[in-house]
UniProtKB/TrEMBL annotation:
Keywords: Signal. This is Uncharacterized protein. Residues 1-19 form the signal peptide.
Length: 101
């Protein structure tokens, strides 16, 4: 019986999802600014903005995707660390990544 309980426990634990929580917002950039010691500022057409600091390991990749989207007039999906983030709220500095939509 103990072996059966142990087996079932291991089976249940192995199926647990360890997915991270995050918030994604579909955005269109209205302005993109890089300056002030390499800070990337994104202003969105529907309100809200985000900033990414130069020491972020994804800084160059995010800048590349955002520039391509802005030039092609395409939207992006911004992924924030905080799952309670609002898409049109105040300046967000917890950008986790950006998708080209």
């Amino acid at each position: 019986m103990k072996k059966l309980l142990l087996f079932l426990s291991v089976l249940l634990v192995s199926n647990v999802s360890f997915a991270d929580s995050y918030k994604e917002c579909v955005e269109n950039t209205s302005r993109v600014y890089v300056g002030d010691d390499g800070i990337l500022w994104l202003s969105f057409k529907d309100g809200g903005s985000a900033l990414i600091k130069r020491d972020d390991p994804d800084f160059k990749n995010i800048l590349t995707v955002v520039t391509a989207a802005h030039m092609a007039n395409r939207s992006i999906i911004v992924r924030y660390v905080d799952p309670a983030a609002t898409c049109s709220g105040p300046v967000r500095s917890d950008v986790r990544g950006v998708w080209l939509n």
